[in-house]
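Quick one: co-fold with D-glutamic acid.
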Amino acid sequence: MTSAKEHDDRPIGVFDSGIGGLTVMSELTRQLPRESIVYLGDTARVPYGDKSSDTIIRYALEDASFLEKCNVKLIIAACNTVSAVALGELKKKISVPVCGVIEAGAASASGIRGTVAVIGTKTTISSGAYWQEIKRISPYTDVECIACPLLVPLAEEGIKSWNILGGVFDIYLGKYLANMPQALLLGCTHYPLFTEEFDRFFSGKVKIISSASAAAEYVKKLINSGDVLANSGRKTPEYRFCVTDTTEKFLSSASRFFGDRISSAEQVTITNSEQL
Ligand code: DGL
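Sure, here it is.
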């Protein structure tokens, strides 16, 4: 018989600058189907990836404080940019456990012999967080990091045209067509939206690693090990979607992942205007 203490029916909180964290949430719903989730997309301030560390830390603390007030049991910073520069501050200032996505993403690349090309936002790449973490766990892996700032706006706009994407990939990754890396690590949670297109660019010859699915696997381990208590499963899981700007564009992107499981999103205010 299980006691009440073995379960925690509070939701998991997930946040990102926009729709990118939905790639993490979608994996979480697949791997942990009993868990309820509150998602926050800071769509009013996306993109984060070209902002200064101080600004990203401020935004991330506001995002996480909002989720904390939603009574979540764990917060996932489903944003590599936040994970790269703000995780320490979040862990210090937020009262529930917070995990990022870089450790899990880097762990998936460990042990790869040859080159791992890591792509991410300007801030993620210039932070050196991926390079350091992969080298720490897998010193012989050759790590090359490339900032791809045009990809987040394309993902947010839902652009799938190969004429556009092929050209943009060529700018950032064209040099690899003659000498392919062993793996391409998608170090931004928006990029899994282009997994098929990356595969097409490299003619299926490069292993594509997603920090989004790696992060969901990491959370599953936390729950299976009891470090975070699992939902009792007594009720159907609830998914709540919150955004800081208008909901229409978000809803059409989110429905690509969640179909009819998402019918509405709430527009929320997360900043205290008196502090601005
Ligand atoms: N999806 C986020 C990441 O993983 C942020 C993208 C952005 O807002 O620039 O880095």
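If it helps, Residues 1 and 7 are 12 Å apart (CA to CA).
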